[in-house]
Amino acid sequence: MRARNFALVMTAALAVYVVLLAGRGIALVRTGETVPVLFGVGVLLLPLLGVWIIVTTWRSGVQIQRLSRRLDEEGGLPDVSDLPRRPSGRVDRDAADAWFDERRAEVEADQENWRVWYRLAYAYEIAGDRKRARATMRRAVELEAASRS
Known about the structure:
81% helix, 5 helices, mainly alpha
């Protein structure tokens, strides 16, 4: 709940920024002079990029939340509460690597199961590899969507 509220606040802040930026772009275009008009067009591209980022991020978050709820209902959410932790609270690296190896073996055994891909994405996350975690979670979302069709 706290993460969602934070995301809502950040989205609202980005939306305000996008509106203000679009206003600046429009003001530059209205000058009618060549250089400011060109800058204005460039500035107007930034709000479009911002809207695209907002939409894709929220869409991804909603899809992942749906998978998380479904896995929770099935009792299959990953549990790392028994793994040793560093003083910072992060999972110990060796323990995270061992847990990751188990999740990877699950995926190799059943590559069309979105549930094992979800758990592998979580393993990447606790191992600190966010780029692969996102890519793996996208695979889980794709497989889950295909299983519903």
